Amino acid sequence: IFVEDTGKEYEYEEIFERLYGETMKIFCIFPLGGKDEVIRCHEHRGVHDEDGKLNIFIVDGDFDNLWDDAKIESPNLIYLSRYNIESYFISKEATIKYMRSYLKCTRREAESRIDFDNWEQRQMQDAGKLFVLFAIARHYYPDLFSVNGAAGKFLDDRGCLREEKYTTYRHDLDMVVPDLPEKISDVEGRISNRFSGNEDRKIMSIICGKYLYESLCRHLATVKNKNINRESYKNTILSSFDISLLYFVRDRIDELRVQS
Any residues with CB less than 8 A from the CB of 159 and at least 6 apart, and which? Predict the structure, then answer.
């Protein structure tokens, strides 16, 4: 299995163990360092290696799910349905479970103090409007704008969007993108038409999971009044998030296994 992120092999191993249990053996997970590298490797390898093993390539959805011409159609190249793999990890139940032990309180008390639903609603509104702009910038002017470093630049210490940074970014984008309001409406329409599920939550599919994770960690730090152990928290949500969200990956691989 070939993936983008280096140093994340253990995450994919955990994910595939949860997807398959003992019913399928993953021979190796190769992190290639980015989507372009994964696609280049895919172009040079077939569906099977010389020993007959399946070659599976998994890439982030990024904003590619908004525009058909951005995606390569291939049976063994799987685009995630959300921005990146971390976008699936954010889980209310896993967060409550983790924080309950640190706050040393009941589940109900932890849920009330964390106020996860309010945090998530704020992300759908604030991060949502920011990543709509990122999508436009990436699609029309990929050399001028980058999502890299978004969390550090656009989030305050509480994990909230810094409105002044958003306003400045939108102003800068407005200077170079003709008809920006129309393009915003177009992207919002694409989000509504191309993603399934609750209409209000569809926006979460284009928000970077690393941004959400950073925002949530900062939010939880304000609840706890000190920084949380991010590695411990990451391990908790990795083992507890709703794995059914990735069943489509398992289904694609199973189709290839049957054809083989």
Answer: 119, 214, 215, 216, 217, 218, 219, 222
Helix (H) or strand (E) holding 30: strand 30-31
Tell me: the pLDDT tens digits for 48-84? 888 788 899 999 999 999 998 879 999 999 999 999 9
Q: What is the spatial distance between Cα 180 and Cα 182, in angstroms, rounded to a whole number?
A: 5
Strands, sheet with 30-31, edge to edge from the N-terminal-most edge strand: 30-31, 2-3, 57-59, 77-79
Give the pLDDT mean for 85-110: 92
E strand or H helix that includes residue 79: strand 77-79
What value does the mean pLDDT take over residues 221-228? 89
Exposure string (b/e) for 180-211, b if CB count within 10 Å is 16 or more?
A: beebbebbbebbeeebeeeeeebbbbbbbbbb
Are the C-beta atoms of 62 and 84 separated by less than 8 Å?
Answer: yes
Question: How many residues make up the chain in this entry?
Answer: 260
d(CA 168, CA 208): 20
Residue 78, number of CB atoms within 10 A of its CB: 18
Which helix (H) or strand (E) is 77 found in, with range?
A: strand 77-79
